[in-house]
Amino acid sequence: MTAKIIDGKTFAARIRGAVACHVSRMKAEHGVTPGLAVVLVGDDPASEVYVRAKHRQTVEAGMNSFEHRLPEEIAAADLLALVDRLNADDAVDGILVQLPLPGHIAEAEVLAAIDPAKDVDGFHIENVGLLATGQKAMVPCTPLGCLMMLQAEHGDLSGLEAVVIGRSNIVGKPMAQLLLAANATVTIAHSQTRHLKAVVSRADIVVAAVGRPEMIKGDWIKPGASVIDVGINRIDAPERGPGKTRLTGDVDFAAASTVAGAITPVPGGVGPMTIACLLANTLTAACRRRG
Ligand code: GUN
């Protein structure tokens, strides 16, 4: 079997198009322009790349983008004061504080300070609780994008066996909650899971979010399963020349794509969906806040 390659780039472009369309209607009919504030502390190069991409795509969708860049050594109290100002700013519908934060700042305290109604990351404990209890929540962007791709592939997920590998607050746990809410039978596997191959091989849906390059092998995958690879790992690629590197996922793509029914590539799979879902969440927050 050769798997269908799930094209996250095209899927994400469709979502961004739909968001842009809705935003332009909001502007024309209600004179409202949704706004997203992104806060970046320090100059981590990977975070810089993400924040630039978020800014560009927010503007392209017709929304206002407010960027706040703070020095690495900023005091936690000053960051919290900025979050308070953004909470109170009516032009700001969504607030995203880019993670990771420097070690001297308690992430949980900062996330808890964000107004849950503006928490477009879905990381605030109130949104975590709402999602876990099946209520209307802001949903973390990466798992939301994964769910959309799975629903596009399968339609109804009821009764399907889903295995999520990874238990992070950002991806693994909310992914499991979303799959559960969609009536899948869900297992969360992680670094301490015994017989991981056996656990993965019974899954109709595999979501890999462990951050270990090509850890999930092709012969672990049930024939015809859908495989969503959240991992983005940079590894050495001597075959491309001395000192060269390449990106790869948590799944051995070459082997898994001969067994799976559908699979996301890395890059070009889950990655583009995350920012598209951030824009969708910002629009959702704007609609809910502004009635
Ligand atoms: N850092 C890596 N991914 C994310 C994300 O989805 N949201 C935030 N706030 N920071 C991140």
UniProtKB/TrEMBL annotation:
Q: Which residues form the Tetrahydrofolate dehydrogenase/cyclohydrolase NAD(P)-binding domain?
A: 140-289
Which keywords belong to this entry?
Amino-acid biosynthesis, Histidine biosynthesis, Hydrolase, Methionine biosynthesis, Multifunctional enzyme, NADP, One-carbon metabolism, Oxidoreductase, Purine biosynthesis
Q: Which GO terms describe its biological process?
A: L-histidine biosynthetic process; methionine biosynthetic process; purine nucleotide biosynthetic process; tetrahydrofolate interconversion
Query: So, what pathway does this thing act in?
Result: One-carbon metabolism; tetrahydrofolate interconversion
**What does this chain do?**
Catalyzes the oxidation of 5,10-methylenetetrahydrofolate to 5,10-methenyltetrahydrofolate and then the hydrolysis of 5,10-methenyltetrahydrofolate to 10-formyltetrahydrofolate.
Which GO molecular function entries does the Swiss-Prot or TrEMBL record give? Answer: methenyltetrahydrofolate cyclohydrolase activity; methylenetetrahydrofolate dehydrogenase (NADP+) activity
TM segment ranges: none
- Signal peptide coordinates: none
Which named protein is this? Bifunctional protein FolD
Q: Any idea where the Tetrahydrofolate dehydrogenase/cyclohydrolase catalytic domain is?
A: 6-121
Q: What Pfam families is this protein classified in?
A: THF_DHG_CYH, THF_DHG_CYH_C
Q: At which positions is NADP(+) bound? A: 166-168, 232
Q: Name the Enzyme Commission number(s) assigned to this protein.
A: 1.5.1.5, 3.5.4.9
Q: Which GO terms describe its cellular component?
A: cytosol
The gene that this protein is the product of is: folD
